[in-house]
Amino acid sequence: MTATLERPPATRSQLRWEIAIVLLLSLGSSAVYAVVSLIAKLTAGKPLSQQTATLNASQSARPYLDLTYQLLGIFFALVPVMLALYLLNRERPALGIDLRRPAPDAGWGTLLAAAIGLPGLLLVYVAATLGLNAQIVPAALNPVWWAVPVLILSAVQNAILEEVIVVGYLMTRLRTLGWRLWWIVAASAVLRGSYHLYQGFGAFVGNAVMGVVFALFFLRKGRVMPLIVAHALLDICAFVGYTLLPDSWLNWL
To answer: How many structural domains does the chain have?
Structure first.
């Protein structure tokens, strides 16, 4: 019989390089672009509150070409998730990314979404009043039949990408490196806030607070699925709600 050779555990240096590569291929690069975008807005010669930050914009005036771009963008955004999970497969850590507990995961996810969403709306209003945020346009797709399904897919993609990378992967790797728990929570929260900086300072604070809550939940429960559920619900409400609500309601909000 042929002996099975086990790979030696990664060194600390290898783990640091791995973290850097995964982040630079995913949300780390988004954070860099967000900082550049915020600087561009601050130096544009008009107040931040008079500028817009648009999410889910159309990529083409041709509907089916636009649909192709949207679906490709969603697919390729998830590739870093596949890479992170492949790299973690060596240790097989308990991340709770599965469908074994659908009811508890859905329940916790809904509670987290409510706990984060309602104060989040208040924070957005305060930040806008103080001029600390750009005007956020959650969805700007052309009025086509596939807009709502694509927005739902986009929300789920955001949830999977962010929660797997920022919580499951990053926190697991930092624990392996021996970081103190509060430094791990802070690193996860600051990263989450940083790639939202293109929306303004209020978005950074709000998402960093959300990052602290989500990180503490993961440390307590050891499952990423409730966080994916919560994040997906928040984004679906924002994206689809913005698309379907009448303009008079949006102006009032």
So the answer is: 1
